[in-house]
Amino acid sequence: MPMVRPSVKGLVDTGVTHIPRFIIHPPESRANNSSTPQNNGADGVEIPIIDLEGFNKNDDRRAKIVNAVRDAFATWGFFQIVNHGVPLAIMEDMTESKRRFHEQPQEAKMEWYSRDFSCKVNYYSSGDIKGRAKPVPAEWRDTLSCRAVDDQWDFDAVPELCRREMEYIKNMIDLQEKLSELMSEALGLSKDHLSSTG
To answer: Would you indicate the residue range of the signal peptide (predicted)?
Structure first.
């Protein structure tokens, strides 16, 4: 079994009452490193929000979506989507399955421990990175990462505790195809252009 720095959950389970020093970031590194989304419209900044409702129709609605994507590319380079078709229940199930995985005893999770990112599944804590040039504060995060190899998902490789909820990935693949079509059309290309070059 690899020796790793304790996981975030492992630290919490020990009953720590103070944040460990290796996780504390100096104040100067925190200012522009917030993971909290800013309110859309704050300070006059409005990130483009694109409503994908009616995406599959070949009418004015689809043309409006493509134009919105084109405008977002030209002004921001990115956009937020709503009404993307991924059911809320599937997103909530995925979140719950990750919680179940991380709440297991550390010994159960260690079967998946690896920083070899050619593996289909990796579990690791952000504080266990070796070989840094200088000490860097860790993030307060444990990670379970599941990835496709050559765009093929092996759902049997996923921890059984999370396997049923991987329906989420199938929805993400469908959403990726939708976005690929819209971006291709926004660039003035055939709708299958980006998907055929991947």
So the answer is: none
